[in-house]
């Protein structure tokens, strides 16, 4: 194990530095491996701390990953604001703006595989090994992120109500997580697709699926509002 540059965190500032080092190391690992392969033992080794010391800052591997998810969502939403501003034509019809918004969100998400992987693992894995305190902190951050997404969507689709914006944000997260999981086939599935081209039709393209799903969702919300 490599030696950490600060043997003991004695001040709050040192503790904050060490905590951030753990997060930064985990984030770097996720550029090399999927969430499922990131272990607390390897994280401890790379950050240069004993596993017990890492657990002084984060109660579990999942707590580290939940915080990374919260950070990644915030960074994505900041960038998405700029992307939507240049991609959505305010003079277009509602249908046109719906399609532009859906395509922009899908493309933006596809460019952030770590975020998509974290979202896909959120409910089934990351929220399962944390304390009520960590769970509550994560959900407060998630609610804030959903609020930002609702605001971005309604800024370009003012025809939607706040309630419709909430529906869209919730389903968009669900679609993202599910689509990402199904668009990352195992080695066995890739080999099957390669051996039998007819099976390749079952392979899911993440960007296309998310775009089409969001287009259908928005069309349904507009139709619902019309009635």
TrEMBL record:
Keyword ATP-binding part of the UniProt annotation: no
Ranges of residues in domain HTH tetR-type: 16-76
Name of the protein described by the UniProt record: TetR family transcriptional regulator
Residues within the DNA-binding region(s): 39-58
UniProt key word DNA-binding: yes
Organism name: Streptomyces durmitorensis
Keywords from the named record: DNA-binding
UniProt superkingdom: Bacteria
